[in-house]
Amino acid sequence: DPYFNEPGYENRQGTPSGDQAASEYNRDIRTFTAQLAILEQLRSPSAAFRSLIQQHFALKKAEILSQLADWEPIMATHTAHVKCRREVWQPKDIVAAIRHELEALPCPSAEGLA
Question: What is this structure's pTM?
Fold first, then answer.
């Protein structure tokens, strides 16, 4: 559990307050990973890496969608709005936007994979 790897938190492992804090930490990490590491890269990839990023997400689309399906119920417990680049998001909207962006990606060509 990543929360307990943080300095000073290992002694809370197995306690009710530690388990609650770890659950909230994991929920937040999943929510922010979905928004910043996936959605933001799909919408605004670095120009120098645009093709590579699009190929990566196209190739990993099924795995990402499966992971999001697992994360979505956990992310749904996130009561705060997530703000990034002056946009305010609900976790369910982040997942829906990722699905939309992934479906819009072109299929990777065999030439681009070499």
Answer: 0.80
